[in-house]
Amino acid sequence: MSSAVDGLVTVPSVNHTEDVQDVLDIVEYRLYKKRFSGLLGLIILGIVTGMQWSWFGPIATNTADEFGISLNQVNWLGNITFCIFIPASFLVPVISSRYGIRRCSEMGGLMLLISAWVRYAGTIRSLSPQSAFVLLFFGQLFSAISQPVFQVLAPMFSERWFDLRGRTTATMAVVIANPIGSALGQLLSPLMGTPRQSILVLGIISTAALPAILLIFDSPPSPPTYSGSKPPLSLISLCRAMLGVSVSKEARMSRRERADFAIMMLAFGGLAGAINALSVLSAQWFGPVGYSDTTCGFLGATLLLSGIIAAVVSAPLFDRVFTHIMGATLKVLVPVVSLAWLSLIWAVTPNNTAALFVLMVIIGGCSVTMLPLALELGVEVTRNANGSSAVLWCFGNLFGIVLILVEGALRAPSTADPPYNMHDALIFHGCVVMVCGSFIFFLRAKQVRRKMDEVMIEDIAPSSGADIPGSRPVKHFSRTGVPPLEMVEITDSPKYEARVSEDLPGDRQKRPSEQRLTEIIHGGEREEHEKCGRAYSGGDIQRQQTNEIRRHSIEVS
After folding, report:
1. Nearest Cα residue to 230 out of 13, 456, 555
2. 8 A C-beta contact, residue 521 and residue 489
3. I want to staple 54 with a disulfide (CB 3.0 to 4.6 A). Which of 185, 332, 435, 479 is the partner?
């Protein structure tokens, strides 16, 4: 018989063979409290790595004067992050799939430690300006390598440690840590005295955050879901699947799924790149038309604060209530935020502060809400948590670099009215976002991974606790010839029930709900598989439970 003790679900699993006496595999789905410590560790490290690239923005002029370098060189201390993020983000799936989450986090922490003290070495007063800049630059380069580690790992960590009722929330908590760190960096750096003292403080903060790595564990002894039990797929397998090249069954993607992921790359890249460009160019957008640096800072803070509030409120709802409408949500929010970006063309005018703040609230609330949804939906479409996250973040930074460079070139000359205005840049910015966002209407976004997990949870639901009358062991389909990946449509139609009734005796209303026909569609091939749940007591097969019992959900604490 099955058992549930201290939140542990034990599922004796029968292989699909003619001899039902060939028993039994044990499958356990369980949640561990250590998942919260790992989540806290990733949040801390995400905040600290987010502080690195924005640290020199508010003190750019003072840094240039202190070290005798140009403002353009100071700007590259932040821009280097976008450039290094792209190749570094592709290394994260390779390392994490081969060595695990913990080892990948340790490597990211090592880069963070090196960056802190290489950067501080550049503050030695005996160095020439160019020597100091080289050390500052390499310090920022090492920190840029560490930053994608704690962003790309978010979907993989949530898949490994959280169940269906917490995955999106966990992803949200990790991914918003980086923008929070960026905001803190801009807030703290001007308060730390001289630029040399400020760099020392940043080194101390970076070093103090490293023990958070000890809170992160690779994977739990027992997985929380079916997808959490599978070994991670490689980035190469995702690339091969996107190109239609032969891959393993687990990595295989249909044409529709490949099209969906390509649409997500464009939409995510355009919207994430738009926010990255705003974070760098905000003063250049709003300053020429009469807005002060303080107002520019408040506009950026409004975008971030509204986004964080919206994400914190919405993520648990998508985990527990709106579980199957991620694609529909994106089809609503992407056009809204795209129109908001386009409207900046007419809104960036003198004495229009109220409208700008409203637009920042709309852009922030929609964009940050979509961030965990897009990352989770990427995993749903590809079943590759590492690779999909890396590709999406890479496109976001790639679009950010392109927008920053092109918009800088579109800056108006000093003879324009007003001088150095960015009106042409705002037109380019809005058009790029609108074009990328328009593809979202072609997104189907079928949540295949969630459906696989729900199939498995349904199968073990009757054995989820001793206080459920008639609890019994149930069949675990990952041990049969039909993996849950192929169970894309489960039908309960009368036609299928009638076909089952030809083979199964007894009253249909009293049969176990496992005795129904499953329609299996995979790679254009269709086959039918009868799911037979049987309970074992003293070696005899007994029929137990009715259809209602199967609908009990599992809550493992």
Report:
1. 456
2. yes
3. 185
